[in-house]
Specification:
heterodimer; A: about 400 residues; alpha/beta; Elongation Factor Tu (Ef-tu), domain 3; Rossmann fold; six-stranded antiparallel beta sheet; 10 helices; 18 strands; B: about 425 residues; 17 helices; about 60% helix; about 0% strand
């Protein structure tokens, strides 16, 4: 049996719509929330008061809780960031992720990362660790190294405020069943949090972890320690630089010997998708597969486009609208015209970058601002569709209408 | 059904809108003698008709501003904008935070002081002033500017143009559609910018004179008094939700039902807040607090409408014919924004209370730069205007306001060629 105790996230951090409206408390809560919105014309009482609270506690934020950076370590392409969350942070279930927010030059930059450390580290020392893959064009990693590392190394408090959102996500261990864990690259982080939080293991577990080159292997000591502690835990390492490949055969044998096993998949979306298909083909029940993926697989970033060397003809655009996902290709010109050509109906106004009516959430991808020539960051951000031209594969979230 | 047609139109027009060539439709419909709304009830709400737009092409007041001049102007202004954009950062976000803090302090102390009016009417009076101040700051320096997306660079969870809501009867999204899109794109274009006269006031000889224009100074005072409701009803009037026939070329992004829901929803919540919730909370002070809230809203209405009228309705301000926005270059758009707006001068606190709309020219040139930067930009923009030989309308607040009243009075009398729209 996999067993661990977890603090339950407090009620007030859950969005109102998920609360049970049938209970009287739920009703009162909704009523209070509505009254606050009407009386204050702001989303909540706490966000109305936040500016005043900041007069006394400069690091207070309504939506986030403050965190102190304790340590930053670099390891071949990864950053291990150790944080001490403030008292308002309500804990996590191993496998969940948080939003890390840095405030640099008046801008809040936020990215989502899985917590990679164990629950025990948080309960005993009040610390959590995030393991972040360094991206060549990533804002977050460059800022971490530029602004936070010097201060932390000097042992002083950094001038850059760091905040955390509440931990969220359902990629957590749930059932007392045999486990098959498949991880690739930084997809190992939530799985490391899960396994290192386990206190007693009574079911067989197979972890297959693939990485690119021995120096990219994360948590090497931790794996040794876990294997000596739990005889039921088998770990198979796959170093793709040594031409090793994850063998479907190994997985098949495991699935045959453990027909009840629960599968956890975590890696780039391409990896997750491939394995999901293979597992389904092996006869694993779809409900037994839990997966978390990140990133458009191997986004063909066109760095040369910045130099204006070659004109890209077309890039894939992934559009998420409520629960639907659609893939289209970009046409010449702005993203707005690409979307319209594909039959979407995003709101727009002036179509020349003045009115902000076509402001849209970009989850990832590079875009060029046609007015200023500015090139965006690869991560999430808001863009004006009418003056944005894709320079790579782009993922957008459209409001449902 | 309407919604369906609109969305179809929208698709069909997607390309033509890109070139702004639906301005053609506007002209042709008026030329082809599409009748002015015949019934008088509709007339009030449909705004004034466009008179002989084609003829006004002949009387060019401003003279031609050539494409070469326009691109030189655009180069200078773009360089200024990009230099300023590079500076935008923590100073701007700290400033916004300070203003929000001031607004919160004013709002909370205003509401409490009004209740303290139980002991002395002086407290009540002070409370009204504080609440009015809070509402003015919320609407002008915070709401207007945040809803323009000026502070979106901060990635703030609620001080951003997508989710912010303000303490005024008008729904923020509706205001963004009419103000950010229509007013800022088609500034002072007769027949396309409803903000020019709000369909109620005749402010140039492009509009046919009607009897009701003779007492339009009174209409102006009434509009000023009910300003928040005027702003709130603005989009419904443009869409002819209750009165009048829809304009043939109008592209609606939103159905009438959604418009009504936003109008009554937001307006209702505001009424509930100021005239029931807070009075009830103050117990025995129910009626004084109700009256105080009413007065604070009134003060805010007068203040905002006065400031806004000074931005585009002074006598120096130019108006334009609809043909100017056909394939309009960025330079010509800049040029139109400069001639179509007017600044006024005053002390620093005056600029803050006006939401920096005292720098209307800078705001119209760079609507997405934080307003905090406008005072710093003003002398540079004035220098660029001088270099390119473009009028830079500025004056003291009193002078500009008197000039607005003069314009309202002047065009309440019939006339022909005193001031008409020009092409470029």
């Amino acid at each position: 049996m996999t067993k661990f105790s977890t603090p339950v996230p407090s009620l007030n951090q859950l969005p109102v719509c998920h609360q049970n409206t049938k209970s009287i408390i739920g009703l009162l809560r909704q009523c209070w929330h509505w009254c606050c919105q009407v009386a204050l014309v702001q989303p909540s009482l706490i966000s109305y008061l936040e500016p005043l609270i900041r007069l006394i506690l400069p690091n207070f934020r309504a939506q986030w809780s403050h965190a102190r950076v304790v340590d930053i370590q670099q390891q071949a392409g990864f950053i291990h960031l150790t944080l001490r969350p403030g008292r308002r942070w309500r804990g996590f279930i191993p496998g969940q992720h948080v939003q890390l927010v840095l405030e640099i030059n008046g801008r809040a930059i936020s990215r989502i990362f899985s917590i990679s450390s164990s629950l025990q580290l948080f309960q005993q020392q009040g610390l959590i660790r995030l393991t972040i893959q360094q991206q060549s064009k990533g804002l977050m990693t460059s800022h971490l190294m530029q602004w936070l590392k010097p201060a932390v190394d000097a042992g002083s408090l950094s001038s850059v405020p760091v905040h955390l959102s509440a931990a969220t996500g359902s990629f957590v261990l749930q059932q007392q069943k045999p486990l098959l864990l498949l991880a690739a690259g930084s997809g190992i982080t939530p799985i490391h949090a899960m396994l290192s939080s386990v206190t007693r293991l009574t079911q067989p577990v197979l972890l297959i972890y693939s990485f690119r080159g021995a120096e990219q292997m994360l948590f090497a000591e931790s794996w040794r320690e876990l294997q000596s502690r739990f005889p039921l835990l088998q770990i198979q390492f796959v170093d793709t630089n040594l031409r090793q490949r994850l063998q479907p055969g190994d997985v098949e044998t495991w699935c045959n010997s453990q027909p009840q096993c629960q599968v956890y998949l975590c890696g780039p979306s391409r990896f997750s998708l491939d394995w999901q298909n293979k597992l389904l083909a092996l006869g694993v029940d779809a409900s037994a597969i839990q997966q978390e993926s990140f990133g458009l697989a191997a986004v063909p970033f066109l760095v040369a486009a910045a130099a204006g060397a070659e004109k890209p003809e077309s890039f894939p655009i992934e559009i998420r609208q409520s629960t639907q996902v659609r893939n289209i290709s970009s046409t010449q010109g702005s993203l707005l015209s690409s979307l319209e050509a594909a039959g979407f109906n995003p709101s727009y106004g002036c179509r020349r970058g003045i009115c902000m009516q076509c402001l849209c959430q970009k989850n990832q991808g590079l875009v060029r601002n046609l007015l200023t020539g500015e090139i965006s960051d690869v991560g999430p951000g808001m863009i004006q569709l009418c003056i944005s031209q894709p320079l790579s594969a782009v993922e957008l979230s459209l409001p449902s209408s | 059904m309407n919604e369906r047609i609109n969305s179809l139109q929208q698709l069909a027009m997607a390309d033509s809108v890109a070139n702004n060539s639906h301005a053609d439709a506007d002209i042709s419909s008026s030329q082809s003698g599409e009748p002015f709304p015949a019934n008088s009830a509709a007339t009030v709400h449909t705004g004034h008709s466009i008179q002989e737009i084609a003829a006004s092409n002949v009387r060019q007041q401003t003279g031609r501003f050539s494409e070469a001049q326009a691109s030189a102007l655009a180069a200078d202004l773009d360089a200024l904008a990009s230099a300023t954009r590079d500076e935008v950062g923590s100073a701007d976000s700290r400033y916004l935070l300070k203003i929000v803090q001031l607004q919160r302090v004013a709002a909370i102390s205003g509401r409490l002081l009004m209740v303290a009016g139980f002991w002395s009417a002086w407290w009540w009076g002070l409370g009204v002033l504080f609440l009015a101040l809070a509402k003015i700051l919320d609407n002008m320096e915070i709401g207007h500017n945040v809803l323009h997306g000026q502070y979106d660079f901060m990635n703030h969870p609620y001080l951003n143009s997508r989710t912010f809501e303000w303490d005024i009867a008008c729904d923020a999204k509706s205001w963004q559609r009419t103000h950010n899109y229509e007013h800022h794109t088609y500034t002072n274009i007769i027949g396309k910018d409803r903000d020019f006269g709000y369909g109620l006031l005749r402010l140039s000889d492009d509009f046919r004179w009607r009897l009701q224009n003779s007492w339009q100074i009174l209409t102006y005072f009434l509009l000023s008094t009910l300003f928040q409701w005027g702003v709130s009803y603005h989009e419904m009037a443009a869409e002819r939700v209750f009165l009048g026939r829809k304009k043939a070329d109008r592209v609606s992004q939103i159905s009438d039902a959604q418009l009504k829901k936003a109008f009554f929803g937001k307006g209702g919540r505001q009424l509930l807040k100021d005239y029931l919730l807070f009075p009830l909370l103050s117990g025995p002070m129910f009626f004084p607090v109700l009256a105080g809230n009413f007065l604070a809203n009134l003060l805010r209405n007068w203040w905002t409408s006065t400031i806004i009228f000074c931005g585009h309705f002074t006598s120096q301000v130019h108006v334009f014919t609809p043909d100017v926005c056909v394939n309009e270059s960025r330079g010509h758009w800049y040029y139109r924004q400069m001639l179509g707006s007017a600044n006024f001068t005053g002390p620093r606190w005056f600029h803050i209370l006006s939401g920096h709309l005292s720098c209307q020219i800078e705001h119209h040139l760079f609507p997405d730069l934080p307003a905090y930067r406008y005072l710093q930009l003003a002398p540079q923009v004035a220098a660029i205007a001088k270099k390119h030989g473009i009028a830079y309308h500025s004056g003291s607040f009193v002078r500009q306001y008197l000039s607005v009243l003069q314009r309202i009075l002047r065009f309440s009398l019939p006339g022909h060629d005193r001031q008409v729209a020009s092409s470029m």
